[in-house]
Specification:
This protein has 136 residues and is α+β, with helices and mostly antiparallel strands. It contains 6 helices and 3 strands. The protein folds into 2 domains: 46 residues, no CATH class; 79 residues, no CATH class. The protein has a 3-stranded antiparallel beta sheet with strand order 1-2-3, with no helix packed on it. The N and C termini lie far apart (48 Å). The mean pLDDT is 76.
Length: 136
């Protein structure tokens, strides 16, 4: 590695920390783990060590749309099933849950469903969401 790059990594650990800590669910780093484990740069060596901490996430089985967290998430899940796909609801990743995950040998896809629920929707456990593609 060029000396300038090594100096940058050594002297800007705070910038490196900011970049790495922005990952919301998964951080994938491509590189030489053996080199990173022994490079003499503390924050790089720490990143190269595999994490042994995995938090168990408890799901609330009492929700109206269980195992989904919203009617829109449930509707998308059902549409994916109808198209022949096998989405996994609330798939655990480290200490988070992905709303839906499609996992095959050739790819992994995280699907996050964001919606705003009004107060009345929160009170009604069976609202009728608009058809997919409408609304928002």
């Amino acid at each position: 590695m060029p000396q300038g790059s090594l100096n940058f990594l050594r002297e800007t650990g705070n910038l490196f920390n900011v970049a790495v800590s922005r990952a919301r669910a998964v951080l994938q780093v491509v590189g030489n783990r053996n080199w990173a484990s022994h490079c003499g740069i503390r924050h790089i060596e720490k990143l190269a060590r595999p994490s042994r901490v995995v938090h168990e996430i408890k799901m609330d089985a009492g929700g109206a749309w269980f195992p989904h967290e919203s009617p829109w998430e449930q509707k998308l899940y059902q549409a994916l099933i109808q198209k022949g796909l096998s989405p996994i609801p609330q798939h655990p990743v480290i200490n988070l849950r992905l709303d839906l995950a499609l996992i095959r040998q050739d790819f992994h896809l995280d699907i996050e469903v964001y919606c705003q629920l009004s107060q009345s929707a929160l009170l009604d456990p069976h609202p009728n969401p608009p058809p997919l593609g409408e609304g928002a």
